[in-house]
Amino acid sequence: MSELFPPTDMKWHANATKRFASPFVGVNHDRIDVDPIVLAHAATVLGYTIKDFYTKPELAVRLVAYVNELYDLLPVTHWFYSNVWIDALGANLQPTETLPYIVIEPRPIQTPEDIDKLHVPDVDEVSKSMCAQLYFRAYDHVKQNIPHMFVPIAFAFCLFGMAAELVGPEKFIIWTRRQPKLCHKLMEKVTETAVNGAIAIANKYGFAMLVMGSVLANSTVLSPKGVKEFSFDYHMKYIRKAFKGGAGPQLWYHLCGDHSRDWPVWRDLIISPFTVLHIGYYEDKPFPGDLMKKEFGNKLTIMVSVDTKLMVDPNFNRVYEQAKNQLLAARDSPRGCILGTACETPVPTNPGNILALVKAARDFGTYGTW
Length: 370
Fold this sequence. Notes:
The chain has about 375 residues and is α/β, with parallel strands linked by helices. Helix content is about 45%, strand content about 10%.
């Protein structure tokens, strides 16, 4: 693998590392960082396939690392997919040519009785799951070959969505209204499995940054009360138990989709010295940077966004202007600000649009210029 990639420019990396640390150490360096949540785009823009990205984690982490240097983004690399840990609960996951690991029918939960029969794997059992083994391959490769870009991460994207995939999303959403006790019973088992996954990563690497998302649980699907009951409360339980087991201390919250009605629920989230909150949309527009700063800026680092849909169009100034407006609204947030996209940057993202994000960060997010 290493024969495919030239060495990292360590001068670039040193600067990027100081920049990345700025919000968390209180010493501003260079400019506001840019994180467009690059995944399979790194593969396709560099000549590989989506399937390569998800089935070859060693290659994937190198591609993301190389793209980060190419675009002047983050000094660390990552690799993940959304349906994490549920193979340890009996889900049959397979990649496709165009999608990451999806659940193949039949799903593990066909009847309410199946929930009672569902075995929660312990840490050792989770460590042997397909998900854990893929992560171990990715992290081992980074640690051995590009250790300067190593951060072990435990993902939970999202606990509500993970439970829904075991049942079928439509059926599970109906259950939240008609049989909420069943949903809670399954959510408890999914949460415990994700906790054990985080502990497994922490046991192997010494720590595990916790990245969580309220993705399916958003204002389009659930009421604010439903988001609190079926997403927020379980994520807080996940964090407390994972911390107790040795995971953390870094926290990164990604609220995907429309959170226009439920965002106040997240005012009471757990915060560590390294905490980032990213909210994708307010109805159909990127979540306002000024609202993020007002409501969360004194507590944690905020991540403001441009509309992900814009990233595929060859209208680079539109991305630049939206990024500019978000930065002007949020760049002086007390605990720091990051610029990104509302969700994963699409596979067919036009590279010119990532340059537009970085240009906006340089032009309107350089420290000492406001």
